Amino acid sequence: MLIGILTDLGRVETERAPTAMPEYDLYLNIKKPAIGLYVRHGAGLPDLADKNDWDFDGTEVESLLPNDLVKEITENGHAFRDME
User: Fold this and answer.
1) Domain coordinates in residue numbering, the chain
2) 10-residue averages of pLDDT along the chain (84 residues)
3) How far apart are CA 2 and CA 51, in angstroms?
4) Which residues contact 4 (CB under 8 A, 6 or more apart)?
5) What are phi and psi of 53, to 5 degrees?
């Protein structure tokens, strides 16, 4: 989105509006709490045979996650993470 700004010389300059940082939902395996599963915010759990074994643990912004984890989520729609 572009925003117009009126300068002191009467010119309108445009700049990009800040965009929201992508967010990711974390699910923990209740049988093995050291295993985390990240998905895009609001995507829900992927087609897992054991969906009842996963518990929502919160949402994190992209800047708090390692780059390789974000890349894996982007490529696969989800990523597992050792939470220890």
Assistant:
1) 21-82
2) 53 64 95 95 88 95 96 96 93
3) 42
4) 12, 13, 14
5) -85, 0
**What is the biggest distance separating any 2 CA atoms in the chain, rounded to whole angstroms?**
65
3-state SS record for the chain: CEEEEECCCCCEEEEECCCCCCEEEEEEECCCCCEEEEEECCCCCCCCCCHHHEEEEEEEEHHHCCHHHHHHHHHHCEEEEECC
CB-hemisphere CA count at 13 Å for 59? 10
Residue type, 64: L
Amino acid at 12: V
Question: Is the pTM here over 0.90, yes or no?
Answer: no
Question: Closest Cα partner for 60 from 38, 79, 82, 77?
Answer: 38
Q: Which two tokens stand for residue 7?
A: 């300068």
